[in-house]
Design goal:
Shape of chain A: globular
Strand content of chain A: 15-25%
Oligomer: homodimer
Largest interface: A-B, 52 and 52 residues
Largest sheet of chain A: 9 strands, antiparallel
Structural class of chain A: alpha+beta
Helix content of chain A: 25-40%
CATH class of the domain at 8-30 and 62-260 in chain A: Mainly Beta
Strand order of the largest sheet of chain A: 13-14-15-18-11-10-9-8-31
Distance between the termini of chain A: 9 Å
CATH topology of the domain at 8-30 and 62-260 in chain A: Beta-galactosidase, Chain A, domain 5
Chain lengths: 780, 780
Amino acid sequence: MARAESVFALSNGHVGLRANLDEGEPHGLPGTYLNGVFELRPLPYGEGGYGYPESSQSVINVTNGKIIRLLVDDEPFDLRYGELRSHRRSLDFRDGLLRREAEWTSPAGRTVKVRSTRLVSLTQRAVAAVEYEVEAVDGPVRIVLQSELVANEQLPGGAGGDPRAAAVLEAPLIAEAHHALNSKAVLVHRTRFSGIRVAAGMDHIIEGPEGFESTVESHEDQGRVSVTTVLRPGERLKVVKFIAYGWSATRSLPAVRDQVEAALTAARYTGWDGLVAEQSSYLKDFWDSSDIEIDGDVELQQAVRFAIFHVLQAGARSEERAIPAKGLTGPGYDGHSFWDTETFVLPVLTYCLPGAVNQALRWRHTTLPLARERAGQLGLAGAVFPWRTIRGEECSGYWPAGTAAFHIGADIASAVVRYVRATGDVAFEKEYGLELLVETARMWRSLGHHDAEGQFRIEGVTGPDEYSAVADNNVFTNLMAQSNLRNAAEAATRHQPEAAALGVDTEEMAAWRDAAGAMFIPYDEKLGVHPQADGFTDHQFWDFEGTPPEKYPLLLHFPYFDLYRKQVVKQADLVLAMQLRGDAFTDEQKARNFAYYERLTVRDSSLSACTQAVIAAEVGQLDLAYDYTAEAAMMDLHDLGGNTRDGLHMASLAGACIALVAGFGGLRDHNGTLAFRPRLPSGLRRLTFSMQIRKCLLEVRITHAGTTYTLRRGEALPLTHEGEDLVVRAGTPVTRPIVKPPAQERCGQPPGREPARRQPHAGVAGGGKVGSAPDHLAAE
Amino acid sequence: MARAESVFALSNGHVGLRANLDEGEPHGLPGTYLNGVFELRPLPYGEGGYGYPESSQSVINVTNGKIIRLLVDDEPFDLRYGELRSHRRSLDFRDGLLRREAEWTSPAGRTVKVRSTRLVSLTQRAVAAVEYEVEAVDGPVRIVLQSELVANEQLPGGAGGDPRAAAVLEAPLIAEAHHALNSKAVLVHRTRFSGIRVAAGMDHIIEGPEGFESTVESHEDQGRVSVTTVLRPGERLKVVKFIAYGWSATRSLPAVRDQVEAALTAARYTGWDGLVAEQSSYLKDFWDSSDIEIDGDVELQQAVRFAIFHVLQAGARSEERAIPAKGLTGPGYDGHSFWDTETFVLPVLTYCLPGAVNQALRWRHTTLPLARERAGQLGLAGAVFPWRTIRGEECSGYWPAGTAAFHIGADIASAVVRYVRATGDVAFEKEYGLELLVETARMWRSLGHHDAEGQFRIEGVTGPDEYSAVADNNVFTNLMAQSNLRNAAEAATRHQPEAAALGVDTEEMAAWRDAAGAMFIPYDEKLGVHPQADGFTDHQFWDFEGTPPEKYPLLLHFPYFDLYRKQVVKQADLVLAMQLRGDAFTDEQKARNFAYYERLTVRDSSLSACTQAVIAAEVGQLDLAYDYTAEAAMMDLHDLGGNTRDGLHMASLAGACIALVAGFGGLRDHNGTLAFRPRLPSGLRRLTFSMQIRKCLLEVRITHAGTTYTLRRGEALPLTHEGEDLVVRAGTPVTRPIVKPPAQERCGQPPGREPARRQPHAGVAGGGKVGSAPDHLAAE
């Protein structure tokens, strides 16, 4: 049940509603989340230390506006009692509506049909709405509908000792005001420690047989509109419920309350049909430029659209707030944002919803004062961004896997550079991007040092792989820092007055370039592979043969000390470096490194399969790439991590898109030019995707015969295909043949950790356009 | 005040009393400690992990039996009020008595003299006693004495954020029983979570002018004997108070209570004079074989005797319980024992009180079931001893500086081997020592692994230096593990039936020998020094010039991440390896290594100066060795760490003895033979010390002219002097000249961290025998 609540969750990046049933119970995990609304909780330490964060931030379940309870002749409509004759929910990615149909016979023998449709508006960011209809099948039957706002809902407790599960915060909201009038109620609360004021409101349009009655009331933690009537067979009672939220840490009670009232007024004015039409129109535009089409595997096709839809929901309206690792679909990871956002989610949004990337990076920019303060505390120059946070403060309670993961700075810088290159948004670069690049470059320059031979080293840091920590010269980190330093120098050269205003002079720029040029990248000559970090390839191999399946994920069954000191990899690290800094490796090195790390990588993280797919495709292991692509795409639909209940894995969903576009499409954007090396696994017949780049919309259509580049918008776009420079012009598609990579023996993985071999679900022929395939998801 | 309470603390290793004033207040930190009495407290984690200990153990302040309050004409005797005409406390190392004399005029103008003498018996381990006398100077004056037992004393709060300060536990004792009769009272309590029953009792002998009256009463948390009389000028009221403690986690209430009653009965039978005589006799024997005499520096002479006395107090009667880092002198480090015991305290006790070493190692042996369980949890064979503990469970809440410090196992093994070689105690070796060696060797064999070249590596561990953590091939650890493996194989060869009973076969012994033979010891060829661990010498240097004095100790002002990744050393690590495994280094390497690490070592730990003294002496920097020796010896007398208030630094006190004997005496005991290379700094004229070794008592007398070896007990003892084999025989002292080491330039230390240059306090000529020097310590 909790898994379905995550899978069917609706969000616009501002407001998120888990797919809890309208009637509230039974539930897996009730959840209504507002981006940026959190509570502080103390971070305890058995043994404290200088610079340890004193408190963390946890997303909270705010006032629930989804609830519409139904009484049938005074018996509550509850799936656990009576007889459920049919029940179906579906989420349509074309219109963004979550539909539900049920036919239920009460314990007393009365049968009703219930239909509800729910949306979280992509066009009116504070608004959600529900159309709820009950119809009497036999009758006459007395119906009571109670549409509610409920604050401080009781939550199921207990995280079972899994450090990844969110802390459950009980009753975090303190009532400040409530009122009710006609069909409307508003509750205002405030969080106890973080001091965030939250207002929730609802208004209703009720249609039913002559003579229905409605009442309204409000209390501190509850608002309720009750509607009652008697329905004869075939008669219906329909309620449209508009829900709105407003919140602020600074604005006054009347201001926040009025903001909610205004949103309700606008929503009511737009009406249910209007909201539905806006939603459809928004999504039509989105899908037109962002769909990824697959021929040959309908299940994968559905999964990829599921992924794109949820990435959109997470980022569409986050607007100067963070995009959390779980979006607004669940309380997992305490609602924190990590490097996932910049490394997995933003690369996808950059080419389909660039405005969202602009907003997400501007959020990072707003946190610069906190990041500078943190750098100062750590004895570094520039800015140190938090490993995990909601508002911007470091919230990690374990520094070897938090503070030490300095690569977050380079990940942000990389996202800035990608966005600016893809959009040509010079205004953004001048006002926000440059400062992010400069402050992260300053951090790297002060974190590293030159050794006696003049090599620039970065020591005591943690790379992406969480089964290693605090090592010297992590290749991923050093390569990403190298780009960061170079890109900062280049941006400062482009925008000299703005750079000067940030205190950058030519000496500082030279120091960045020199450090980048002298960056030390360890290499194991004996094995002919790059160690993930200094000494890694000398370490003992993990005893994979002696590790039974039930001992995964390893972090729940083995101590960090043992994981850290052995050759075992949780998630792509060196392999991710080969994707994001592919220009720093030869093809031979890529093949050897990939084979070496494949047999060490256990994929206990959802941030791995997609990257392995990309490099598997590059080194020519297309079937393996296909398997990993499917794994990334199915992470939540098949609950592969066993924790979809806590929310969806946004980075893995975005990663499924990356696996297709960067893996089979072979897209790389290292140097400001789009470079493609397309290739298809035997299981797929066609892959088509589109990309927004500057003023153009490029469509790439890959079949086993060849690749066709078509400009659907714009005049001309330069790109490379297999290293050949091309310019694609409006009206003149360019087709090039597929270059088959040399056949390679399939790499081995740790025993029991091989990805499932993909059996294409091609029973239904063709994938095709949005609309022709089974786009809905059905459950229960 | 709190510092003086630590410095004048009395203990026998079983019961410890801080030198709180008889009248209870004012106090710095009230403290009565019983070895092994602790309370459990949860260990919280911001982010938990597999294998993290769930609770810690904290020493608690038990029922205070020291209190004797005095009322003078109904005004309480309190140093803060009235006029203190004189006040003097002294601790005599010859008889182990803490004496106090005060003359005080009450606010109302009455003057009294107070004399008290306190002891914690070295011969009756459960017993302490006080002789308390008040004399009227003017008068007549009405006197009330209240002799008390007080449980759950209020403690001053707040550790000020220093992670090293002990957690303060409030009211840890739950009352179980109390009774009072005649001059005697007994209270029985139980700790809430650890379930330890603690009984405290007192009995009294009262002498005073005809007609004094006494009453007795008891309550849950208090026992009180009140004595009242009127004293005319010159008249005295004297109370002898016998105090006894008993405790157990398993024995019944009557059993523990009766144990205390029995101890009181025995003490009363022995009487005050008897207890004093026993104490003197015990200490006469001890000093006769254990004194270290110095000519030329009376302050250092006093400090060294202070050190020896407190090491004796910590270890004398610990008897199958741990010797904590602070002894029983304060709550610092939560009362935990660390590797300090085996590495610093036991080497001293081995040659002066070997029975205490036997007991301390048997305590470790009793914890083997816990250590085996911990090894299993960590995926290792054999036994993993806790980094910090009271009862035997791991109590470290920060694994990189706790669990990862595996060298504790080798430190214990090394102490076993030293004890067996020094005493020839084969019975101990068979019954206890062998198993400790075997289980630690098994741990090392499973912790390390062979690389492709066949070298045996130990990765991801933490050495002694706490400003580095979780590194590969820490030289200290690898060398100590090498000895551990070899010594286990040798002991198993000597005791084959016993080894077989532990499951050791010839294959396992061979595996230990092979691993020891193949042990990898990193060496930096370019610099010609040993890196503390792999990669250490490549790291950035700490910015010592940019670190002002108020930023020390560094751990309170800089994050671990920054300390760990730079070349900065908290305490001797590689330098300690050169002491304990001096056989693994050439003289040239020692000199180069010492110079290299000197400029990196900030001595933020009290476990450093003594080791630096030893190696400074070995490489010929005798004045520097002298400075470090004085620093180690003065650690608590001059409160160099600023935390003597929390208890004395036993390891530094023991270290002062090591600095003299292993530094200037040049003693090494690597291979079963005592080897000496004596040398004296110019500031000292003579150094004489004695050592018990097997059945012999060896005296070593070093002057600038030469060294004389005299056998004061036993028939013949082989040893080496500057590499020359000698046999010293009864009645035939052997004298050899001093070999002056080649003059060396004094090494540099980090700016501001140089040891104070020793200005010899030789104003009073001669040091000489116990008794001729000012052995008492006076304060206030």
